[in-house]
Design a protein that fits this description.
Distance between the termini: 51 Å
Order of helices and strands: HHHEHEEHEE
Helix content: 55-70%
Radius of gyration: 30 Å
Low-confidence stretches: 263-274
Number of helices: 5
Structural class: alpha+beta
Shape: elongated
């Protein structure tokens, strides 16, 4: 009996001795697969971020080029045409009136030079980084107010600070999309833009008093732009909430934790498993 127990113990020990390496090999194989999968997912997230960031940069530049084209056609060309007409008329007037027209032309040309300088700066994405989100949005709101298309009010709450160049670029693009949607579809008279800063939270809120729409409209044709805002917000770790009802206008709120970091082009991704 004792011999049988010893034989069984030896058999079990032998089995454990031979099976242990197998379990270790299986464990290492599973661990390496998970690690490889995690690395691939991380690389995919980084690639997706870089592609979306590049797409955002291109769209911001395209929108800026469209604005530049309109400004050159509607403003600068007309001013220069007026200068040309003024100079042509200066030949048939007395010296006093001639000097007045020359002085007027000089002032108009100085204005055109300033406008062209500002336009040339706006063509570069670096102006967003150098000016910051608040100043860049201020320039856009001033431009829209001057156009007379809609009355825009900009409110800044708290002490503004940099949210990071990449995040501010994406936030500016979301603002551009919200502004364009309002101008093209909302038929609104007033637009209120709020930038709310605190150490724990940042909010970008765009509210209009336009036609509004039913929540289900986001799933219909024309809702792609709204979905795009939400996708872009998620890209930088923010949440975009869109509220609207027919006849009640539309409110777009983008909420971001300034401290929390998510996937960025530098490869940081703290939410991933170890």
């Amino acid at each position: 009996m004792a011999g049988n127990n010893i034989n069984s113990l030896i058999l079990i020990t032998t089995l454990i001795f031979f099976m242990a390496p197998t379990f270790i090999i299986i464990y290492i194989f599973i661990y390496n697969n998970r690690k490889r999968k995690h690395i691939e997912e991380k690389q995919q997230l980084q690639s997706t971020f870089r592609q979306e960031l590049l797409k955002t940069q291109i769209e911001v530049q395209e929108e800026t080029l469209n604005h530049t084209s309109r400004e050159i056609h509607d403003n600068i060309t007309q001013v220069l045409s007026f200068v040309k007409l003024n100079l042509a008329m200066a030949g048939g007037v007395n010296e006093t009136e001639k000097q007045l027209k020359i002085n007027e032309c000089r002032d108009l040309i100085a204005q055109v030079i300033t406008d062209l300088r500002n336009l040339s700066k706006s063509l570069s994405l670096e102006h967003i980084a150098s000016l910051g989100l608040v100043k860049t949005i201020e320039i856009e709101t001033d431009r829209v107010n001057i156009s007379g298309l809609i009355n825009v009010e900009l409110l800044i709450a708290g002490d503004s600070f940099s949210l990071g160049q990449q995040r501010e670029l994406v936030l500016f693009r979301i603002f551009q999309e919200a502004l364009n949607n309002t101008l093209k579809h909302a038929h609104a008279k007033h637009l209120k833009i709020s930038l709310q800063y605190s150490k724990e939270i940042f909010n970008l809120i765009v509210e209009d008093d336009g036609n509004g729409f039913t929540p289900g409209a986001m799933d219909m044709s024309g809702g792609a732009g709204l979905k795009n805002m939400q996708n872009r917000a998620a890209l930088i770790g923010a949440v975009a909430t869109i509220d609207s009802l027919p006849g009640k206008g539309c409110s777009i709120k983008v909420t971001l934790n300034p401290i929390e970091q998510h996937i960025y082009a530098d490869g940081s991704y703290p939410n991933s498993a170890g």
